Amino acid sequence: MNLINIPNALTCCNLICGCVATGAAFYGHYQWAVLMIILGAVFDFFDGMVARALGVSSPVGKELDSLADVVTFGVAPSAIIFYLFHEVHYPEMLASLNFSLFTFHFSFTKLLPYTAFLMAAFSALRLAKFNLDERQHYGFIGLPTPANALFWGSLVLGEHAFLVSQKFNAVFLFLFMVLFCMLLVSEVPMLALKFRNMSWSDNKQRYIFLLGCLPILALAPTSLHIIILWYVAVSVVGSKFIK
C-alpha cells in the first residue's frame, strides 16, 4: 500500500466529520455537531503528524487538507450559527422590516440566518492565505480556523440559554459573527503554542496564556469559548506590548 494513502485517509476522516457536523447543526443537534468538529480537529492534527513521521507528502494531500478544513472549520460552524439565528430573539423593529424585489417578498428574519455562511467564506479565505503566507510557518496571522470553529461550538453549548434569551438578539449575533470573520483574515499575529525552549523571555505570551487558563478551567471546565477569547486577548495585546 502506498504510504501517502494513510495521512490522506485521516484527512478524509476529518472531511467526513465536517460533513456530519454540518448535517447535525442543520437539525439543531449542537452536541453532535461540536463532537464531530472536535473529532475532525483530532484527525486534522494527526494527518500532518503521520505524514511527517512517514516522510511522505504530496500536492494532493495539501489540497485535500485545505478542502477538509473548509468543511469542518468553516461550513460546520456556519451551519451552527445558521440554526442559532432561527432561535435567537429578533427586535420588534427588525422583525417587522419587509421588502419586495420584483415578485419576491423578503423579511429580515428569514434573510439574516443566511449571513451565517459569511463565516464559511472567510474561513476559506483564511486557509488560502495560510497556504501561501510564508510568515505563518512558525506562527499564525489571524485567528486559526479550528480555534474559531471550536469557539462557536463551545459558545452555543455553554451559553445557549443566554443566547436565546431576551438579553441577546439577532443583531448582536450578527455583529459578533462579523467580528470573528474579521479576526480570521486580520493581520494580527496570533500566538502559536510551540515551545522551542522553556525560558520565560522567549515564551512570555505562552506562559501568560497558560497561567490565565488555570482559573478559567477551575471555574468553568467546559468553557472552551472563554479560553479562546483569552487566547485572542493575549495574542492581540501581546503582539503590541510583549517583545
Helix and strand arrangement:
Blueprint: H1 5-26, H2 30-54, H3 59-85, H4 92-95, E1 98-101, E2 104-107, H5 108-111, H6 118-132, E3 140-141, H7 145-158, H8 160-163, H9 170-185, E4 189-190, H10 204-219, H11 224-241
Antiparallel strand pairs: 1-2, 3-4
> Can you tell me the number of structural domains?
2
What is the succession of H and E elements? Answer: HHHHEEHHEHHHEHH
End-to-end separation: 48 Å
Strand order of the largest sheet: 1-2
Shape: globular
CATH topology of the largest domain: Four Helix Bundle (Hemerythrin (Met), subunit A)
* Overall residue-averaged pLDDT value: 86
Beta-strand fraction estimate: under 5%
Q: Kindly state the number of beta strands.
A: 4
Provide the low-confidence segments as ranges.
Answer: none
CATH class of the largest domain: Mainly Alpha
Tell me which CATH architecture of the largest domain applies here: Up-down Bundle
Radius of gyration: 19 Å
SSE class: mainly alpha
Question: Helical percent range?
Answer: 55-70%
- CATH superfamily of the largest domain, by name, is CDP-alcohol phosphotransferase transmembrane (TM) domain
Number of helices: 11
Largest sheet: 2 strands, antiparallel
Describe the protein in words:
The protein has 243 residues and is mainly alpha-helical. The protein has two domains: 5-190, Four Helix Bundle (Hemerythrin (Met), subunit A); 191-243, no CATH class. Helix content is 68%, strand content 5%. The chain is built from eleven helices and four strands; from the N terminus they run ααααββααβαααβαα. The chain has helices at 5-26, 30-54, 59-85, 92-95, 108-111, 118-132, 145-158, 160-163, 170-185, 204-219, 224-241; strands spanning 98-101, 104-107, 140-141, 189-190. Strands 1-2 form a two-stranded antiparallel sheet. Strands 3-4 form a two-stranded antiparallel sheet. Strand 1 and strand 2 (104-107) form a beta hairpin. Helix 1 (5-26) runs antiparallel to helix 2. The mean pLDDT is 86.
